[in-house]
Amino acid sequence: MTSGQVLTAAQMRAAEQALFDAGVSVTELMEVAAGGAADWVRRVAAGRPVTVLCGPGNNGGDGYVIARLLRAAGNAVKVIAPFEPVTDAAQAARRRWDGPVSTAGTAEGEVFVDCLFGSGLTRPLVAEHVLLLRGLAAQHRYKVAVDLPSGTASDSGAVLNDRLPSYDLTLALGAWKFAHWSLPGRAMMGQMRLVNIGIAAVEGAAGLAGRPRLSGPAADSHKYRRGLLGIVTGAMPGASLLAAAAAQRSGAGYVKLLAATADPRTPVDVVTAPLSDALADPRICTVLIGPGLGRDEAARVMLAEVLERAPALVLDADALVLLRPGMLMRGVPVLATPHDGELDTLCRQFGVIAENRRERALALARVSGMVVLAKGPDSVVAAPDGRLALGLPAPSWLSVAGTGDVLAGIAASRMAAGSDPFGAACEALWLHGEAARLAGPAFTPTQLAERVSEALAACL
Q1: According to CATH, where is 3.40.1190.20 located in the chain?
Q2: CATH architecture label of 228-457
Q3: Alpha carbons 288 and 231: distance in angstroms, whole number
Q4: Are the CB atoms for 122 and 97 separated by under 8 Å?
Q5: φ, ψ for residue 277 (rounded to 5)?
Q6: Which of 14, 115, 214, 279 has its CA 20 to 30 A from that of 97?
Q7: Would you say the pTM of this structure is higher than 0.90?
Q8: Confidence of residue 288 (pLDDT cuts 50, 70, 90)
């Protein structure tokens, strides 16, 4: 369910070292990486003048190679370098450029290419270089960052200085970095493209929760073979109705609301059954509990019963607030879908201390045994065994009440249909985002749920 590995700066250095150990020189690898980046810049420049800003390290060396290749392709190129190159490969790249280099100054033009600092940067830029970046960005119509925008922390996406420029295109060299998919840095990068340089698969690397590959029901399928999902109805039934609407469109063959009596708003194609009776049915595959559950004693009793008897669970909303470590004792598959506030609550309950959403989700998954879908503008999926997937950017129109219930319903339906919790979470993230794109701006949660089947169709 994941694609496109995402590497830390340390993993990227190790992956490059593996190429060097295999006989590829630093200079050869620089020519490949910068050559791929130059192809993109040449296309977007379309013959227009280009200014390349080069730093002291190998990112700056990439800039000299890009400048040389663009000049050979017929572009007018100006190189600005406030530093002398300090690595052997960057020094060699500058010699091969064999053209004028300005140490500062203005360069009005059409396309600006930022090769000042790459993925190794961990501290803020000095004021002089921030001013240079701002000035050059303001003087050019189109802005390209090579590997990462200068001033962005590779492993976190943190922006290390104020008022850094935004870019129209960011060219990731060799592999995606966490900053490419993490806010606030991601918001600066514009369109993103990956330049292949021959990096091998890295064991333990994170991935992207990309478009899943799904299949339709088998020719001999029936409703139970496709998966029976139960959704617990609590104090606020509307939330479970939203989850059910999404679940019906996400692949499960049978969706039941689990409550003593049916809410009058329940659609005619949704069955309501008592919770205890449903849990006694051996055909039930997955139970979703939490949307609209409430936090009173009745909610606690229902949660305890589901945790004790369900064969697989998705825990959302109020269920996450009521959950305590001692309640997860059976070892059945569990997917938790917290937003940031619920993630904070879970971390306190389970004794997790970590710095950011990604690390908190990983630590919580490890200590709890649950797969954790930490949802937000840059969602992550973490498994107890250390697997990690990053959600692709989704429309910001999802920031409205009720869309989390839709996401929970999709994830629970995918689990009922046969996906494991990690796979179901990745599938749900993509389907949720695609349904939002299809729904357009300012949709209601009901309208979002109605587009899920169209999102699913895109995966068949």
Answers
A1: 228-457
A2: 3-Layer(aba) Sandwich (3.40)
A3: 5
A4: no
A5: -65, -40
A6: 14
A7: yes
A8: very high
Tokens at residue 393, please?
Answer: 């950017």
* Residues forming CATH 3.40.50.10260 domain(s) in the chain: 15-205
Helix (H) or strand (E) holding 131: helix 127-138
User: What are the pLDDT digits (tens) for 228-286?
Assistant: 999 999 999 999 999 999 999 999 999 999 998 989 999 999 999 999 999 999 999 99
> What is the tens place of the pLDDT at every residue in 294-305?
999 999 999 999
The structure tokens listed for 184 are 């606030």
CB proximity list for 114: less than 8 A, separation 6 or greater: 53, 133, 136, 137, 143, 144, 145, 146, 149, 150, 167
Spell 128-153 as b/e; 16+ CB within 10 A means b.
ebbebbeebbeebebbbbbbbbbbbb
Q: H or E element: which one contains 284?
A: strand 284-289
b/e per residue 162-173 (b: at least 16 CB within 10 A) = eebbebbbbbbb
Q: Which residue has the tokens 């590997």?
A: 147
- Mean pLDDT score across all residues of the chain: 95
Q: Which CATH number fits domain 15-205: 3.40.50.10260, 3.40.630.30, 3.60.15.10, 3.90.226.10?
A: 3.40.50.10260
